[in-house]
Amino acid sequence: MSTAGFNSQNGTGTGQTYANGPSQNPVALQQLPGVSYGMTHQPSYNPMPAKAPPPTGPGLYPSAPYQPVPPVSSYQPGPQITSYPSSPGQPLLPRPPLSGPPSHTPPQSASPSPGPRMPPAQATPPPPAVSSSSYYPSPQQPMAPAWQYNTAPPPMGPPTSISTPPRGPVANHVNPAASLAEPLPPSSAPYSTAPPPRVSQSVTQPPGPGMPPTSMLGYTQPGTAPPPMNPMVPNTYQPGRPAYGPPPTGPSPIGPPPIMKPTPPPTGPPVANTTPPPPKGDAQCGGAVNSTVPPTESDGQEGDIECPGAVAGNGPQASNSYNHVDNKMAGLAQPGPPGRHLGHYPSLPPGYQNASAPHGTSSMHPAMQAAMQPYTQAPQPYQQPPGGPGPAQLSPSLAAMSLQSSTPEALRVVNLLQERNLLPPTPVPAPTPCLPQDLQKINCNPEVFRCTLTSIPQTQSLLNKAKMPLGLLLHPFKDLSQLPVVTSSTIVRCRSCRTYINPFVSFLDQRRWKCNLCYRVNDVPEEFMYNPVSRSYGEPHKRPEVQNATIEFIAPSEYMLRPPQPAVYLFVLDVSHNAVETGYLNVFCQSLLDNINALPGDSRTKVGFITFDSTIHFYNLQEGLSQPQMLIVSDIEDIFLPTPDSLLVNLNECKELVQDLLKSLPTLFGKTMETQSALGSALQAAFKLLSPTGGRMSVFQTQLPNLGVGALQSREDPNQRASAKDIQHLSPATDFYKKLALDCSGQQVAVDLFLLSAQYCDLASLGCISRYSAGSVYYYPSYHHQHSPAQVERFQKDLKRYLTRKIGFEAVMRIRCTKGLSIHTFHGNFFVRSTDLLSLPNVNPDAGFAVQMSIEDNLDDMQVVSFQAALLYTSSKGERRIRVHTLCLPVVSSLSDIFSGADVQAMTGLLACMAVDRSVTASLSDARDAMTNAAIDSLTSYRQSVLTIQQPGLLAPACLRLFPLYILALLKQKAFRTGTSTRLDDRVFAMCQLKYQPLFYAMLMIHPALYRVDDLTDEGALNINERTIPQPRVLQLSVEKLSREGAFLMDTGTVMYLWIGRNCHPNFLTQVLGVPNYAAVPENLYLLPELDTAESQRTRAFVCWLRDQRPFYPSLHVIRDESQLKANFMQNMIEDRTASALSYYEFLLHLQQQISK
Amino acid sequence: MEAAVFILSLVDCCALIFLSVYFIITLSDLECDYINARACCSKLNKWVIPEMVGQCLSTMLMLISMHWFIFLLNLPVAAWDIYRYVKVPMGNMGVLDPTEIHNRGQLKSHMKEAMIKLGYHLLCFFIYLYSMILALIND
After folding, report:
1. Which residues have CB under 8 Å from B38's CB, separation 6+?
2. How many other C-beta atoms can be found within 10 angstroms of the C-beta atom of residue A109?
3. Which compartment or compartments is the protein found in (chain B) (predicted)?
4. What is the DSSP pairing of strand A456-457 with strand A880-892?
5. Is A779 helix (H, G, I), strand (E, B) or coil?
């Protein structure tokens, strides 16, 4: 299999190693010059001693620590001025004795609570007004409405070079032109010869010694305990795979498949992207055009590395390079009998080869498929069922479709007014695209990459007719249990559109492949001819890259413009009186202490801390100090860093100081009376501190910033919460945070915001800082260490996940799609740097993205289209990696096919994103109307164009039967509801979440799951890790499903409610809750007692299983009839009528009325 | 007097034409990715007010000199410029916002707007030229 030495280097120990070329030389593996930068390069990364002169940039930094004290004496060294116990130069630890416990009465926390408020009963709630606004452009609205799917986006330019915003003076530490123009030599030269300015800036980095070889350090995949299987079973090439290119010229035993129509060769005049090396390449090489490109413009490489230097650099390496496949499942990978592959490949072009595959296991195939997730890379052989490829498999997608999945189920007509129980008993599965089996088998996992229409309409007019949104939902950095990782000196990409080679390309012959996005014919490079999986030569189509729709590459040095940054974490903590009252500092410091060794990173990891109230406090943690020093800067108008090089320190070298600080921090501010908060200045200081390296900034804020730059005013009028006709103030009040976020994005700094506040904090404005810097927002309303124990527990668990989860730095993501399609709008947290490129200073596994697509050119001559998302990032171990996901979908020409392929959950998720945009740019009522209209329009279109027999009732295809329900759920969601008292921050936070969460979690927010848990049985239970997990039915969200005799669990994603009926079976109360009777159920129960009874075990196993499915910890509230939280529980009863909103049935009637108009 | 009004308008119109061309060039640079969104927006936002002022100036000139037809021709464009400027949300960085320009076809609509303005200013240019010559001859 592989050499042990190499495996151990990989960290996983089980990784398979494959050498490039028939003779594998383990020694050569260690050399790999250009492939990774390992220990040889590390020392040269920081060649300068830590005392190198600080940058002499235009005065933003003090040129010497403490020197540039502004006239106002902003930097106060004397203890007599500051109100804090420690002053610069004095140790923190000898802290003043605490006099008495801090008072726990929050001074200002008497915020109006959104308690149950009964609006005046209204006999019949008015039906949602249907205005003329809709998502579809109508003749009356020539000025394209804000979010229609149909407007064709601007023509996509040639693959582009990106430059970042002009950088501030501080950023001049790198000479971009120099580094760009560097003709990447084969070895690590670029790093050792880094331009001097860069070096001088790296003073804040610890000197290199003690760095272990990080080069091949494998990086452990989170959650890798996969069942032994090998995704890349080296079997014969998949049979039945239609070749999308012109028929092969080689002799083929069976001739072209019967139904296949040869796809015309690249059609039409080349669009922009087929033109040879676009200006971008030049820009990259010359560094002339984008002279402002900062070092991290990694995208440049992501886009195009056409530099002759780079290409030339590869040449000499070739002999030395190797291809290595690190397959997590590697253990069992058994190369198939070599004779078999070599046997028939060469004579056959890939598309046809399968036809000659021996028949064999066909009978088990359907069963296997049914048994496993359609997308999982199960160990099933890729080879064709030996029974011989049926016509369905050989034929191209269209014909195959109608034969195979023949969608009667998806298109079955459902009269929504009559069928009440529409919810499936289990979570709704994602529809499977109608692709030939072999393509479907390797298609991307729907949890990662999902399209609202699994059958893409041929033309925009067809899409307009269907009136459904077309878009993609991505979860690109999801924690995957198995992910093939490839190390290769050359990453094979299309020469014109730079698409990565993927399973859906077609091989014209052994040496040429045709891009499935732009249809350019490319050569297969020499290295690619060798297949590391089977260790055979001449089978490019069996390489892991061509067998896996999700794959990760270790990027060679051409993909970096600067050495990969270390993991840098900066914590910015609010220590004003309000913050101390909430008591969050204790929890934070304790969590960080507990997880300090689990922070992702390597020997270069750096941390820093800033606290702020009305002044900014820095902490000098330089190695050699016996105690951390606090440095206070009170000139918040013109913020500067007191000692730029010792505020961010190497975690390994200064761990003790950091731990000291964390232990003393909670008590340090125990008596503070400072109530003001200068968040804006603190953010500016943090940005200055991080900008040389990039990294992650975690901001903890507990009140409205009210001092200095970025100060905000309260904009919420609590009395208007329920009654206001339209919700105001959903958009930011200032552009300060947006500008700062863009600056951060340019310097690869991401800002994560933790908001723990009882009062209005203007999340709409503050959230911008995270939104455009690709951070995330966490909100704990009314957090208090004593009053809300459930919140505290959630905060603790969330912090643990937050601190220890995987992280990718200086990332960019490019989404490519087949020529003819283009991206129209992006949703998520990032900055859109060019038409298809997202700038993500950090990427985390819990971030989801959505894009709306439009069809620019007709897709007449294509049977399938593909989408590729490529995420280039620096891992916390300092490796540059590229994760590539490719999704392939069929193209259809009839409306009924489009409807049968509709993915109702994805549509709902995308509509929610669009509605958030609409609420911010137009108004909330507009967004609500637009959502209602989306349901009306698509059902109308179905009725008019697809249904042949007109029946009475509200008819929907089975695949859309949940659509009205989900739309109604959205209308009643916290983000969009009206008439119910909703705090503005809660609403804005819900909006953030809808845009930012991956679809799976967003769906729970939109339509919670309700289970009856008092009668759990082991019938139909799952068995995971020897634990039995009962699987109760998902119930409809209606009070009629509740009964006083039962107990019901509602899962809303971030919160779970366990509702106990008044007459609940005493057995449940005693065996699960451990209380004798209903009246004894405590008011604030948020933990299920660990009782040793079967019922308790079942219930806890089920709750635990639900919690394990998501990264963040949902808190559990046990509620009774008279609990305060009951209102929250009841608000999620979507199908029922409330004083201000329609019931499900009324909503259906309303839809029907509109449709038959 | 009349000739002077038209000469002034002509100069103003020339400036506006150049401005429109500059908008088109910069936006198409953004489309082709020669510059980034932030640079593009900050460049163009600088010129939004001058454009508005220029447009209002020629409108006022026509109003004062009582050329009703040309005034009415100018009025809608001036009104649009002012409306667009006033309607910028508080959180945005100007008429063109780098975080939104790639969304919802905004780039395309900005481009279209610049094109229409270019055509309109060219039309105005010839009207002013004609009127100026007429005025000079009459003098």
Report:
1. A164, A165, A166, A742, A746, B98
2. 18
3. Membrane
4. parallel
5. strand
Closest listed residue to residue A432, CA positions, set A1049, A1096, A890:
A890
C-beta of residue A647 within 8 angstroms of C-beta of residue A618: yes
Per-residue pLDDT tens over the stretch A904-936: 899 999 999 999 988 888 888 889 899 999 989
Contact A732 B37 (CB under 8 A): no
Q: Looking at this protein, which amino acid is placed at residue A848?
A: G
Contact B91 A768 (CB under 8 A): yes
Q: Any residues with CB less than 8 A from the CB of A394 and at least 6 apart, and which? A: A240, A242, A257, A258, A259, A260, A355
Report the alpha-carbon distance of residue A712 to residue A677 in Å, rounded.
10
Q: How far is it, in rounded angstroms, from Cα A470 to Cα A451?
A: 7
pLDDT at A722: 64
Chain B CB contacts of A283 below 8 Å: 34
Task: For chain A, list the domains and their CATH numbers.
Answer: 437-560+809-902 (2.60.40.1670), 568-713+731-805 (3.40.50.410), 903-1007+1138-1156 (1.20.120.730), 1008-1133 (3.40.20.10)
- Coil vs helix vs strand at A1006: helix
Q: Tell me whether residues A731 and B108 touch, CB distance under 8 A.
A: no
> pLDDT band for position A328 (50/70/90)?
very low
Over residues A511-540, the mean pLDDT reads: 81
The domain segmentation of chain B, as residue ranges, is 2-138
User: What residue in B sits closest to A914 (Cα-Cα)?
Assistant: B104
User: Which residues does chain A have within 8 Å of residue B41's beta carbon, measured at their own beta carbons?
Assistant: none
Overall average pLDDT of the A385-393 stretch = 36
Residues in B lying within 8 Å of A, measured between beta carbons? 31-39, 42, 89-93, 98-99, 102-105, 107-109, 111
ipTM surpassing 0.90:
no
**Quick one: pLDDT at residue A758?**
80
Q: Inter-chain contact A742–B105, Cβ cutoff 8 Å? A: no
Q: Quick one: pLDDT band at residue A558, thresholds 50, 70, 90?
A: confident
Which two structure tokens, joined as six digits, stand for A1111? 């990264």
Question: What share of chain A has pLDDT > 90, as a percent?
Answer: 8
SS3 per-residue string spanning B1-35: CHHHHHHHHHHHHHHHHHHHHHHHHHHHHHHCCCC
Whether residue B108 and residue A165 make contact (CB cut-off 8 A), yes or no, is: no
Give the DSSP H or E segment for B73: helix B68-86
Cα–Cα distance, A805 to A752 (Å, whole number): 14
Assigned token pair, B83: 């409306």
A917 to chain B: which residues are within 8 Å by CB? 103-104
pLDDT of residue A80: 38
Q: Is A1005 left (phi over 0), alpha (psi -120 to 50) or beta?
A: alpha
* Residue A318 touches chain B, beta carbons under 8 Å: no
Alpha helices in A265-356 (DSSP H): 279-286, 298-303, 308-317, 338-344, 350-353
Per-residue pLDDT of A440-488, as tens digits, reads 888 888 888 889 988 888 888 888 888 889 999 999 898 888 888 888 8
Q: In chain A, which residues have their Cβ closer than 8 Å to the Cβ of B91?
A: 731-735, 738, 764-765, 768
pLDDT at position A162, please? Answer: 39
User: With contact defined as beta carbons under 8 Å apart, do A154 and A949 qualify?
Assistant: no
DSSP A297-312: -HHHHHH----HHHHH
Q: What is the pLDDT of residues A46-83, one digit of tens each?
A: 333 333 333 333 333 333 333 333 333 334 443 333 33
Of B37, B104, B105, nearest to A833 by CB-CB distance is B37
User: Does A541 touch chain B if contact means CB atoms closer than 8 Å?
Assistant: no
Q: Which of B31, B91, B104 comes nearest A825 by C-beta?
A: B104
